[in-house]
């Protein structure tokens, strides 16, 4: 099975390469996803089928004539991967809050909570959570002012089993970038300059 | 209480110019966009100059030369927004972006009679004349898929909201897909485009749920 | 909010109205001739899109804020204390706007604008309100105050009661400003740092105000806490150049929700009249509820007329799906509803009348502190 890593090259400079790559895609699809890439191929999509690809290998490859269709082939494979890929659990919220940490005690942290489900935008409730229930990576984010989402809902496994869950997820808010700092400082400089301070 | 989907996906699609090869779990972790633990859990399907695709604990990322796609099936959906905000608002700030979409796919479990009731309400057979009468004769006939579009919207210069209703392939019930599409017409910079996406994300989620409520109300 | 008990003062009367707790707390003062002062801002948590309470109150008594508000003072900078202040500034274009000198510091302004720019946190970055105020103040005059600054004065000849009115800041001190700015430098809104919601630190740049309307004095204590440092805390107020020693306040807005940390025996002894009215708002968040029982005992012993703006009208518990309620119980035990309705204390009277003749109204849950169990 071909490696799906940066070392895999889907470029065809020689007919041998093309042949190899055609085989690579077929193997990938077949071995990994147990789909057959038969002679008809994915005829519902305007793609290369196996024979067409094989025929191409017998002629000098004129890559430029076919790049879009090649991309389409790859994309279609991926679309099938999407459909057939290993199913993942789905977490459906019954209730969602956005919260922020207001105080940290020895074993708990105090939070203010904004009820997202009720479409509120001010904190109307507060609660204390156990620090120990946080994941290690979330513990690193714990500080006064840290923002998180708290979800209560059902997790549905791929096999259809439902499990009630409560999950606190700290938001990894985008960092301040050089450009966002520059833009903000431009605004603040204008404020400082235009207010008539006395 | 409003009905809840059994399976609910939220995705962000961005159309622009991308270099798929740079989108790897390692790159995301090195920028602290995901944690080291999240990186360990990622499964790479393909990393290539034409396309990159990998699946991590709670999201799937797929990038081709002109399309960036991230999807999650796990609430809180705002996580994919934060991830996109980090990638294009903080790091890849010169990536040309032309349009974006905020999409929901929701699978609702329901029995056949409810599905038929929704199908008949959304696509009545009477306008189909005599063929409609033939269709009506058997409950295995009827609506397969319907799409409704709103493209006159106050909250954007150009775009649309498209909602599609069809039987679900994942469970006994229906799939409602809402595609909330925005085109960027004012030559916005990348950070400006991402801010525009950020400003509309939560409203879009709410709107998709509101639209869904209208449809489910039929049953 | 039911404001049917709100009453408009006569042109030669004073009125002091305290609002809280809500999102913030606020004081509204009539100094005569339909001229009003607003200190900070307060909004009800429970009513989305509501107006700041001082504005709602003024409109209820048929006063046009745009015409009648002469002075707006921000004694805090954080959203939790001044929710709605930007709206007040916007609706009162003729008012002088004033704040602590610390809030005019360039590093402070850079930091708060960085917090707010591009923030997608529900409920705001913590600096939304102050940035809103600063943006509205572009092109307008902003008066910076420090201990001893006369914020604004009004000639008696312009007022129906013919008494001069002087508003003086008694804090912050230079040292308080310095400590505050050190703390602001730690906020960390810098490139490469992860965003978070700004929080108000320990160091407070509260503006304590002394308002004299003729011989009537008001002391508004903001949130100033006592410290052991003579260059900060209430010592600064007692030593302030802006204070006329010997003058005592008849109305005292007790600082920091009546807590022991806001208390100073010397202030009560030297700055508050024996026959006085003390007013305060409660604090109902976290593990510490203020005023505590000890605080209540202390305050009621110091003034026979102590009023609390909200005496325990419990906010209604939200009703949720039983699965959600069960999970809440299993995870955090309980959720505390902090959506208390703000109460209102109104004190109105003639400058020449005695305290017993003043009209004190307790609205929407306010009560005498002695009555709190």
Give the key terms.
heterotrimer; A: 198 residues; alpha+beta; five-stranded antiparallel β-sheet; disordered N terminus; C: 373 residues; alpha/beta; eight-stranded mixed β-sheet; seven-stranded mixed β-sheet
Account of the 3D structure:
The complex is a heterotrimer of chains A (198), B (219) and C (373). Chain A has helices at 15-33, 50-58, 67-84, 136-141, 178-194; strands at residues 90-104, 108-115, 125-130, 147-156, 162-170, 196-197. Chain A has 198 residues and is α+β, with helices and mostly antiparallel strands. A five-stranded antiparallel β-sheet of chain A has the order 3-2-1-4-5, with no helix packed on it. In chain A, β4 (147-156) and β5 (162-170) form a beta hairpin. Chain A is elongated. Chain A starts with 14 loop residues before the first helix and ends with a strand. Mean pLDDT of chain A is 71; it is low at 1-19, 32-67 and 79-86. Chain B is α+β, with helices and mostly antiparallel strands. Chain B contains six helices and nine strands; from the N terminus they run βααββββαβααβββα. In chain B, strands 2-3-4-5-1-6-9-8-7 form a nine-stranded antiparallel β-sheet. Chain B is elongated, with a radius of gyration of 20 Å. Chain B starts with 6 loop residues before the first strand and ends with a helix. With 373 residues, chain C is α/β, with parallel strands linked by helices. In chain C, the strands form two sheets. An eight-stranded mixed β-sheet of chain C has the order 6-7-8-9-10-11-12-16. Chain C has a seven-stranded mixed β-sheet with strand order 5-4-3-2-1-14-15. In chain C, α8 (234-238) links the parallel β9 and β10. In chain C, α4 (85-91) packs parallel to α6. The mean pLDDT of chain C is 91. β6 (196-197) of chain A pairs parallel with β5 of chain C.
């Amino acid at each position: 099975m071909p490696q799906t890593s940066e070392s895999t090259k889907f470029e065809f400079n020689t007919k041998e390469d093309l042949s190899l790559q055609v085989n690579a895609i077929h193997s990938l699809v077949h071995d990994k996803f147990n789909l057959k890439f038969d002679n008809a191929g994915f005829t519902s999509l305007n793609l290369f089928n196996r024979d067409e690809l094989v025929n191409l290998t017998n002629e000098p490859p004129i890559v430029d004539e076919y790049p879009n269709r090649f991309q389409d082939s790859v994309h279609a494979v991926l679309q099938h991967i999407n459909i057939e890929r290993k199913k993942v659990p789905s977490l459906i919220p019954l209730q969602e809050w956005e919260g922020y940490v207001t105080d940290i005690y020895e074993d708990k942290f105090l939070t203010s909570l904004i009820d997202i489900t009720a479409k509120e935008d001010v904190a109307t409730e507060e609660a204390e959570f156990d620090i120990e229930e946080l994941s290690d990576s979330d513990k690193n984010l714990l500080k006064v002012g840290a923002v998180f989402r708290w979800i209560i809902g059902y997790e549905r496994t791929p096999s259809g089993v439902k499990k009630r869950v409560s999950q606190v997820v700290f938001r990894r808010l985008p960092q301040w970038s050089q450009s966002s700092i520059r833009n903000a400082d431009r605004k603040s400089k204008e404020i400082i300059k235009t207010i008539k301070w006395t | 209480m409003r009905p809840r989907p059994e399976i609910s996906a939220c995705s962000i699609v961005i159309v622009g110019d991308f270099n798929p090869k740079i989108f790897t779990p390692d790159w995301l972790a090195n920028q602290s966009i995901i944690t080291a633990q999240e990186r360990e859990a990622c499964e790479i399907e393909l990393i290539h100059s034409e396309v990159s695709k990998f699946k991590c604990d709670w999201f799937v990322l797929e990038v081709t030369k002109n399309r960036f796609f991230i999807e999650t099936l796990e609430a809180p959906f705002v996580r994919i927004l934060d991830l996109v905000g980090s990638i294009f608002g903080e790091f890849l700030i010169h990536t040309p972006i032309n349009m974006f979409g905020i999409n929901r796919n929701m699978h609702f479990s329901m029995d056949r009679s409810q599905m038929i009731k929704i199908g008949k309400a959304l696509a009545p057979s009477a306008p189909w004349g005599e063929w409609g009468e033939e269709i009506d004769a058997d409950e295995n006939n009827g609506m397969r898929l319907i799409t409704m579009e709103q493209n006159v919207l106050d909250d954007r210069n150009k775009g649309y909201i498209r909602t599609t209703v069809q039987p679900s392939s994942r469970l006994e019930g229906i799939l409602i897909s809402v595609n909330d599409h925005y085109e960027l017409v004012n030559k916005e910079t990348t950070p400006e485009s991402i801010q525009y996406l950020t400003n509309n994300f939560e409203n879009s989620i709410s709107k998709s749920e509101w639209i869904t409520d209208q449809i489910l109300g039929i049953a | 909010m039911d404001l049917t008990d709100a009453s408009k003062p006569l042109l030669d009367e004073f009125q002091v109205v305290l609002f809280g707790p809500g999102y913030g707390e606020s004081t509204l003062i009539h100094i005569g001739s339909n001229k009003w002062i607003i200190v900070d801002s307060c909004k009800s948590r429970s009513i989305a899109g509501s107006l700041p309470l001082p504005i709602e109150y003024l409109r209820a008594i048929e006063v046009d804020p745009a015409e009648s508000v002469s002075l707006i003072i921000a004694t805090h900078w954080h959203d939790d204390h001044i929710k709605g202040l930007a709206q007040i500034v916007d609706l009162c274009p003729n008012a002088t706007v004033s704040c602590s000198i610390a809030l005019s510091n360039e590093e402070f302004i850079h930091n708060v604008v960085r917090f707010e720019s591009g923030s997608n946190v529900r409920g705001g970055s913590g600096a939304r309100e102050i940035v809103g105020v600063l943006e509205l103040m572009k092109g307008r005059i902003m008066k910076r105050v420090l201990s001893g600054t006369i914020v604004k004065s009004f000639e008696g000849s312009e007022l129906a009661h013919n008494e001069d009115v002087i508003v003086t800041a008694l804090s912050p001190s230079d040292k308080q400003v310095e400590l505050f700015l050190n703390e602001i430098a730690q906020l960390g809104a810098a490139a490469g740092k992860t965003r978070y919601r700004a929080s108000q630190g320990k160091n407070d740049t509260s503006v304590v105000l002394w308002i004299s309307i003729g011989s009537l004095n008001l002391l508004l204590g903001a949130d100033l806490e006592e410290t052991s440092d003579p260059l900060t805390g209430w010592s600064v107020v007692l030593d302030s150049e802006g204070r006329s020693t010997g003058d005592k306040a008849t109305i005292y807005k007790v600082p920091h929700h009546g807590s022991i940390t806001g208390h100073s025996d010397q202030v009560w002894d030297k700055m508050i009249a024996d026959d006085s009215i003390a007013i305060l708002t409660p604090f109902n968040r976290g593990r510490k509820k203020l005023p505590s029982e000890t605080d209540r005992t202390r305050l009621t012993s110091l003034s026979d007329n102590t009023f609390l703006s909200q005496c325990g009208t419990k906010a209604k518990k939200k009703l949720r799906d039983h699965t959600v309620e069960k999970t809440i119980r299993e995870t955090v035990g309980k959720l505390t509803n902090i959506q208390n309705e703000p109460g209102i204390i109104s004190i109105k009277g003639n400058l020449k009348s005695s305290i017993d003749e003043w009209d004190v109204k307790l609205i929407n849950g306010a009560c005498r502190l002695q009555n709190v169990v």
